[in-house]
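hi!! sorry for the late reply, been swamped w classes. u asked for the two structures so here they r. pasted raw, havent cleaned anything up. first the sequence of the first protein and right below it the tokens
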Amino acid sequence: MIKRVILIILDSVGMGALPDADKYGDVGADTIGHVAKFNGGLKLPNMESIGLGLIEGIQNINKVSDPLGCYGKFYEASNGKDTVTGHWEMVGVKSEIPLPTYPNGFPAEIIKEFEEKTGRKVIGNKPASGTEILDELGEEQLKTGSLIVYTSADSVFQIAAHEDIIPIEELYKYCEIARNMLTGDNAVARVIARPYLGEPGNFSRTSNRKDYALLPPHATALDKLQESGVKVMAVGKIEDIFSGKGIYSAVHTKDNMDGVDKTLDYMKTEKDGLIFTNLVDFDMKWGHRNDAKSYGKGLEDFDVRLKEIMQNMESDDILFITADHGCDPTYPGTDHTREYVPFLAYGEPLKKGYNLGTKVGFFNMGQTICDIFNSEKIINGDSFLGEILK
């Protein structure tokens, strides 16, 4: 009997362009393959030991002859390549229509309404990197008390403000105003609070980020687990992605290593249920910033810590490792990339050396987790539990 599932999302660690990548401008993208090539190879002995290098189509990753777990890859069934779409699909939601994006900034009527409701002027209103927008407008925001509003290639409405000028709770209220405004055709996936500190020339974002996501359109695997009395422990931005729905308890994190620490903490205290972890640095710090060197180092650092997770697993635990989309740091631009995602499964109840092949739809993972806990099924996906159990 499986009592606990540890699901770790390596945010943006894709493994090669999907067949429809041309519709997204992502032909040839390959996050992990290109990162490995850029760095002259990667030292990932623990993921490789489970079967990472044996996944069909993966490039520049070492193969082992006697893998310890199951391995395969997943094809996103939804239309999109963003965080919310990917995570929602994992728990049962197939998004037919891509969430709205704003390559030219938000319409004037939205900005006007937001200014009226907050009583503060908006500056920015364009796609930008989070660090570059602070270099450009941080000093003006510091002097005027305006709100820096910006977006990206993702479906996001981001609000940046210096913590000494606009207290955190006030910034959160402005985000709630924006979330309530942005509905219908303008229902962005996330409104994000982006507080920062520092002086001109040395601004830095703080860990007080907060995401205000859309609610999923129907019940997810997390809801089904909750209805069955199964606890879901969320690590990182998981709670924000689902607006707390279906979550038993949650902790936010400062970085990837803190995310691993918090996952291990839950493994010590919560002996049953789902531990659902997102490690965001791959995407936020390195993918979007075209930093292939740090991306590779981040993968190697996670792999070192993966050994701790494996060593702390109980005999009735299973571990799933996957991703939500790609963000190839060697690819032109800073957008996410439409890619397959790798999938690894490890634990005593599971087969060793089993090739799961290619599964269409991340929601097969959610259906499998519902199956593990004997919860009611979600509306999309097929369980592959029978394939991977010994």
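now the second protein. again sequence first, tokens right under
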Amino acid sequence: MKQGDIGRLILLAAIWGASFLFMRVATPYFGSLNTAFLRVLFGCVGLIALLLILRTNMAFHGKALPAMLLGVINSAVPFVMYCLAAKWLPAGYSAILNATTPLMGVLIGGLCFSETFTLRKMVGVVLGLAGIVLLTTTGSLALAQDVLLGIAACLVATACYASAGFLTKKWIGDRGGLDARLVALGSQIGASLFLLPVFIGSLIVQPVLQWNHPGVWLCVLALGLICTAWAYILFFRLIADIGPLRTLTVTFLIPPFGILWGYLFLGETLSKGFIAGGLVIIAAVWLVAGGTPKPQIKEVVIKS
């Protein structure tokens, strides 16, 4: 890879690692559902603006509905799950648990999409589960009910990401493909429409929220415009320049940045058990993804 490609890969990991920091800050003030909705809404607005600037032809060729449904699976539900997790888990924990997406891909692909189980992949899955146990039993957090709920929410999110990858191939790629930027836009439109009634309902039934915090609004705007819209553009450019397999190595770089931002800006502590568990999970992801042949894909689903 060229130095510029490496720099953009590191930048992308830093952006997605920061998303856990922003959710951790915004959720206590705006609530989980509202933060998730505002993220996809601003991400949608940002993508529309970028595509207009790039003068992209926004013709979906009959694939608008599948793209919108993918947005529910790949954005709406995972973003809600991570915002819920942000109430109970430090940003570093969520960032490391996000790296279990390839492990979920092995399980879901084998159980639901006729993907082949290999010894290397199965060892990776077992090692990943061991890493999660190590992370949650020897880390700095007490293993309380709220912590377990936060971990479960993160794993639901990664299961959605893994499922969306297979469904994208089935719904979009196997039907002739579609410009990845349009898949991104359609997914954010679908996620916004899905979460809109939930957002309205939460405003009605919840007590008065603390909206008058400019710093929190900056975090939400950063989630939508930087961690969603701009990150999509960076990701797609990297795929075009260095290929999908090398681009997916960003998965390994996100946890260190998530831990670093939480440590620097939120005062989150780092324990030996936390670091050991994180390293075991990253090793498991390497076992699952490292020996995979370069896939022939037409579209890629974003994970953050």
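hope this helps!! also noticed smth abt the second:
Confidence is low (pLDDT under 50) at residues 292-304.
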